[in-house]
Amino acid sequence: MKNEKTLLIKEKQQFPLTIKRLGINGEGVGYFKKQVVFVPGALPGEEVVVEVTKAHPKYAEAIVKKVRKRSEHRVKAPCIVYEQCGGCQLQHLEYGQQLKEKRDILIQALERHTRFHLEEMDIRETIGMDNPWHYRNKSQFQLGEDHGKVIAGMYSIDSHRLINIPECIVQQPVTNKVTNVVKQILADFKIPIYNEKTRKGIVRTIVTRVGIETGQVQVMLVTAKKELPRKEMIISEIKKRLPEVVSIMQNVNPKKTSIILGDETIHLAGDKIVEERLEEFTYELSARAFFQLNPVQTVKLYNEVKKAAGLTGKEKIVDAYCGVGTIGLWLADGAAEIRGMDVIPEGIEDAKKNARKHGVENASYFTGKAEELMPKWVKEGWRPDVVVVDPPRTGCDAKFLDTILKVKPKKFVYVSCNPSTLAKDLQVLSSKYKVEYLQPVDMFPQTAHVECVVLMSRVEK
Asked: Which residues act catalytically here (predicted)?
């Protein structure tokens, strides 16, 4: 009986709902009997009739049965598989309004996880994209078969049904073209396509990456076994049909997993890397190297980091979670010295190589954790003026935040890709740091993702 009482809303129940705002995953959020209801596809300001699909003690999930009042910002999604694919969440919302809602998603996270007075905070308008389509420089399309035909695409939301995507309109057009041609080559040569259920077949995924400024393309075939039948014929055909492909790789992933890449990567033909340029910097991208998926917006993001750091040429900077050194290099000409660190040795080697290649002599890179290296440097008499961090979606490590509070740099610049973990981390730092401003940046138009650059300054007590 107790459970019955707690569930005010029941599965299959239908009721009218007014959508108040967008949730962190791009779904509409409304309230019924003081309980929150999440409705994918519904937009703020809309009045809808919904049917509950899942009832939980604290919230419910529902689908739209009828729209009684439409949002003035609702548009027709241009993608033909938009509702099945799930890769984008906001194509049905006019782009200017997407930018406003992303700022609100950031505000919601701050409301939920901090004790800040938001009305006093400088939360800026989201920096958008001039053309919010065809921006992604990398695609990872799973392969499957449908009635004997080879298909490539993504798994439908919450299911294992593969949706064929001949043209993804948030991808760079060349990645679509290359994926389709490689898919056709595999079909022509009757290469066995991996089947998730039976675990038979060879080729699982086609990964395509393009250097937007250089036009160089890399193709990687992810296979369940090392042996790739008719390998030489596949390589020769890719070279013949796709002259823009300068690098052909193979990755072996024999595991039963949804993780795309395995541990072994084999060089099949051409170069081992492709190059990408961001303004004056050229980056070498190996098959597994992390690189921002939207280079156009990356330039805007990094320029915001530079603006926040407010460099005069005298500052000592720590670039924590530095990866291949992209952000540090961007700041190098305005700093006295940069020290970057990361736990991945290959990333640090790439960072050193990138610094050498660009003649950046004031940057040095170390394998290790910031929470171990920074206190050691302080003991040696080297204290940073500015710390820049660009952590993964899980946010900053608790020990790292503790280290910041102890080392006390004058400025802390936080680059975030997850509003929830950002808000939690800002609350921890607020004991000694003041948030000067938050600048959201739209790196992934048509999705609910929002990046943010935050400037914090040390409170002198």
From this structure: 417
Residues tagged in the binding site annotation: 292, 321, 342, 390
Main-chain phi, psi angles of 273, to 5 degrees: -135, 165
Q: Does the annotation count 79 as an active-site position?
A: no
Q: Are 424 and 274 a contacting pair, CB within 8 Å?
A: no
Structure tokens at 89: 């969440």
Q: Provide the pLDDT for residue 2.
A: 45
Q: Which residues contact 25 (CB under 8 A, 6 or more apart)?
A: 38, 89, 448
The whole-model pTM stands at 0.92
Say how far residue 1 (Cα) sits from the centre of its chain: 44
Tens digit of each residue's pLDDT (9 = 90 or more) over 405-418 = 999 999 999 999 99
Q: How far apart, in whole angstroms, are the C-alpha atoms of residue 298 and residue 306?
A: 12
**Angle 227-231-233 from CA coordinates, rounded to 5°:** 160
3-state secondary structure of 362: coil
The token duo for 277 is: 């340029």
- C-alpha Rg value of the chain to the nearest Å: 24
Classify each residue of 159-172 as buried b or exposed e, where b means 16 or more C-beta atoms within 10 Å of its C-beta. eeebbbbeebbbbb
350, exposed or middle or buried, with CB in 10 Å at 0-12, 13-18, 19+?
Answer: buried
Beta-bridge mates of residue 337: 316
pLDDT value at residue 1: 41
Residue 289 has what pLDDT?
Answer: 80
**DSSP element (H, E) containing 177:** helix 173-188
Tokens of residue 70, six digits: 């439409």
Tell me: do 313 and 362 sit in the same domain.
yes
Q: Does residue 37 sit in the same domain as residue 169?
A: no
| Whether residue 146 is found in the same domain as residue 124 | no
Does residue 326 sit in the same domain as residue 431? yes
pLDDT for position 86: 86
Structural domain contains residue 158: yes
Among the three residues 285, 312, 336, which one is the final residue of a domain in this structure? Answer: 285
**CA distances from residue 342 to 268, 321, 325, 391 in whole angstroms, order as listed:** 29, 5, 9, 10
Catalytic residue among 79, 88, 417, 452: 417
Point out the residues of the chain with pLDDT beneath 50.
1-4
Residue 136 is classified by DSSP as B
Which range marks the domain in which residue 217 is found?
138-285
Q: Is residue 317 part of a domain?
A: yes
